[in-house]
Amino acid sequence: MKPIASRIRHVAFGCSMLLMSMVPANPAGCATETPRQDSLARQNERMAWWREARFGMFIHWGLYAIPAGTWNGESAPGTGEWIMRNAKIPVADYEKLLGQFDPVQFNAMQWARLAREARMNYVVITTKHHDGFCLFDSKETEYD
Fold first, then answer.
1. What gap in Å lies between CA 80 and CA 64, rounded to an integer?
2. Rounded to the nearest 10 degrees, how much is the dihedral formed by the CA atoms of 98, 103, 108, 109?
3. Would you say the pTM of this structure is higher than 0.85?
4. Left (φ > 0), alpha (ψ -120 to 50) or beta: where does 125 sit?
5. What's the gap between Cα 23 and its chain centre?
6. Residue 2 burial (CB < 10 Å; 0-12/13-18/19+)?
7. pLDDT tens, position by position, 37-79
8. Using CA atoms, how far apart are residues 12 and 22, in angstroms rounded to an integer?
């Protein structure tokens, strides 16, 4: 099996190729660049801030934080947010974690302060991850 980073790159590449293939042809030939070249140029422009920022924090936080890499007493190293898939946890069993997720001591200001003190330039938090659990109230699901 391929390492997770390799699989993520393949999925991201496939998604980006799909999105680029959906870019409409340039109407009335307004620009000399092909849609794909234009798309890459716009992507590079949008990503310039990130390349310049260089140092930041990505926070992956959700139900998968509860088992913390262990399921039924068995270690599932390196799984993080993929624990349900990698440990082959049935959805019905995994959903029981919902009742345990009660972040009463969560302090967003403390996390932001830590990032600032470390001189990070950005913070990104996953508000909905692979397992579908939402860190926000949603009218679409109770899985939040």
1. 6
2. 180
3. no
4. beta
5. 24
6. exposed
7. 778 888 888 889 888 888 999 888 899 989 989 999 998 877 7
8. 15
DSSP 136: S
Read off φ and ψ for residue 88, nearest 5 degrees.
Answer: 55, 50
Q: Do 128 and 64 contact (CB within 8 A), yes or no?
A: no
Tokens 């262990």 correspond to 70
- Residue 70 is encoded by which pair of tokens? 């262990």
E strands in the chain: 57-59, 70-71, 74-75, 123-125
CA dist 19 and 112 (Å) reads 33
Where do we find the tokens 């930041």? Answer: 56
Residues in CB range of 89: below 8 A, 6 or more apart: 71, 83
Structure tokens that stand for 48 in this block: 């310039």
- 67, 135 in Cβ contact below 8 A? no
Length of the chain: 144
